[in-house]
């Protein structure tokens, strides 16, 4: 019985860590980045490049902050894809390329959504 | 990450069912749940090593889930007789004082050669020396025989004349056994060779037949 309780405790601690991470570090940040990218999209459509560039810098710094924690919980390949997409978006905004910037922005939104969907407990993910 | 734990639970259950369906012969001296854990832990240890992108925590959660399931199943089988019966199965008598339990042998998918091989490995050469052969829940065969040490009566190993209904023609020539005597014995005992599971000539040149 002692070993059953110890092993259950270890499992619950690990699941607890995951729940803390998911509900405080994934869901709020994905929502934040999604909303931020929608705002950025408006700036790109209205071609306010200076505002878009300064906002992009803020989002970029926030992303750098959270990515260092995400690497311990989320697949590194997913994080690398987001890194690459953010770098592309920065270049498109600096070059004032509306079409490419919008396309990359939508791609980035999908990448963040996928992170959230992959962590959801659903039959689709289990199977 | 909970997905990893849920997947581990599902795979553990599926492997457990597979091990129980495949039967005791596949177990190799382990209980079904022990073998499942050995199989899964070996893979789980490799998974985070191979996939450098996967966080180590995924491996930890899967391992912790298997560890908990193993402790839980061990505890349940220790405390509940019916759970033990369901998870580990029950021992099966294959031979009872010269009578083979064909139905159980078919269910366990073991043939007469497997039984004879196990018998020899345990130092018995003559089936007549044995009271019981029991297939244990861990896939091992136990042999219960009178007190006399095994093998002392064996001057020559019994030569098979019929295995699973098939006459072993090669053995007659190889060991200079009279086929006429064999046929006479079959006629005398009114035995159809096709209905014999195991027939042999013992060291005293007696023809012995075990019908199905």
Describe this structure in words.
- The complex is a heterodimer of chains A (127) and B (212).
- Chain A has 127 residues and is mainly alpha-helical.
- Chain A has five helices and no strands.
- In chain A, α1 runs antiparallel to α2, α1 runs antiparallel to α4 (98-119) and α3 packs antiparallel against α4 (98-119).
- The longest helix of chain A has 44 residues, at 2-45.
- The two termini of chain A are 32 Å apart.
- The model of chain A has no long low-confidence stretch (mean pLDDT 88).
- Chain B is α+β, with helices and mostly antiparallel strands and 212 residues long.
- Chain B has helices at residues 2-22, 32-50, 56-79, 81-88, 102-108, 112-121, 169-174, 179-188, and strands at residues 92-96, 99-100, 132-135, 141-144, 159-163, 166-167, 196-201, 207-211.
- In chain B, β5 and β6 (166-167) form a beta hairpin.
- The radius of gyration of chain B is 24 Å and the shape is elongated.
- At the A-B interface, α1 and α3 of A face α1 and α3 of B.
Radius of gyration of chain B: 24 Å
Taking pLDDT < 50 over at least 5 consecutive residues as the criterion, the unreliable ranges of chain A are none
Q: Kindly name the structural category of chain B.
A: alpha+beta
Instruction: Write down the overall geometry of chain A.
Output: elongated
Q: Overall pLDDT of chain B, averaged? A: 80
**Overall residue-averaged pLDDT value of chain A:** 88
Q: What's the number of helices of chain A?
A: 5
Question: Biggest β-sheet of chain A: count, sense, barrel?
Answer: none
Proportion of strand residues of chain A: under 5%
Level of helix content of chain B? 40-55%
**Distinct helical segment count of chain B:** 8
Helix and strand string of chain B, N-terminal first?
HHHHEEHHEEEEHHEE
What would you call the quaternary organization?
heterodimer
Task: Report the β-strand fraction of chain B as a percent range.
Answer: 15-25%
